[in-house]
Amino acid sequence: MPAPTVHPSGRAAGAEITGIDLAKDLNSETFAVIQQALDEHGVLYFRNQTLTPEHQIAFTAYFGEPDVNFNALRFGVNGSPIIYRISNITENGQAIGTRRAGETWHTDMSYAKNPALATMLYAVEVPTLHGLPLGGTGFANAAAAYDALPQSMRDAIANLKGVFDFRGRKRSSPVSAEDIAKYPPVEHPIVRTHPRTGRKSLYIVRDDCTAIVGKDARESQALIEALADHIIKPEFIYQHTWQQGDVVVWDNCTVQHRAVQDYDLPSRRLLWRTTVKGSVPV
Ligand code: SIN
Q1: How far does the centroid of ligand 1 lie from the alpha carbon of residue 154, in Å?
Q2: What's the 25 CA to ligand 1 centre distance in angstroms?
Q3: What is the pLDDT of residue 172?
Q4: Got the DSSP string for 21-39?
Q5: Domain-wise residue ranges, the chain
Q6: What would the CATH number be for the domain defined by 5-276?
Q7: Whose CA is nearest to atom 3 of ligand 1?
């Protein structure tokens, strides 16, 4: 097997890894290269992969325990609760996946006590317009955004917590009363320390984060908006342009992401999605 090689994107996040067939078992040295690259770059992509759902779940499990997602209950691949479809495709009048998933900047499952550690997407179909790939995914490096804050702002936010509420964001697919009951509002620090590297990142998301503990509504909103806007400045962004067969994995502590909705049928987009369970943010 050729040695895995890491090619940084040259942007604030993201690196391509070549020389790995993700349908095969990985040895510990190879996975160590992947883990270190993820810790360093926040987002990794592997081109030209050919995966079954089982391969994707097996690769996900190298990073930690695969998590169940509420969307998988409707859109699970082969009925699995841990791998589900994101798609704009309908078959027999029925959506086959979550449509317009994640179209605003966010970090996965921030509404949960244990937000997702990592998320993985595999591109089965990529929309195009006259050969131009559409439906990219943007990533914003929230650790680089934290590093760029003036010291006075770092001091002001050092010990603040945000209230994260599952009901805060408008979701693309229906949410049941059980889902809402499962995720009561939760408080997380708005400056998170990475569980592996110890690096600090901003952990604040418009809509998902509905208040700052100890601040009134006006002050809370002003701070949430200022920091959320700061994270997505162009200098912190890597935008992934999908090719069929891409696998992309990202670290939800280090980066935020959003799906670019610049396509529609008859251009089809189909991605398989898995997540890895995370720890309580500190
Ligand atoms: C997501 O937020 O998980 C979806 C990202 C995408 O579809 O590009």
Answers
A1: 30
A2: 26
A3: 65
A4: -TTS---HHHHHHHHHHHH
A5: 5-276
A6: 3.60.130.10
A7: 102
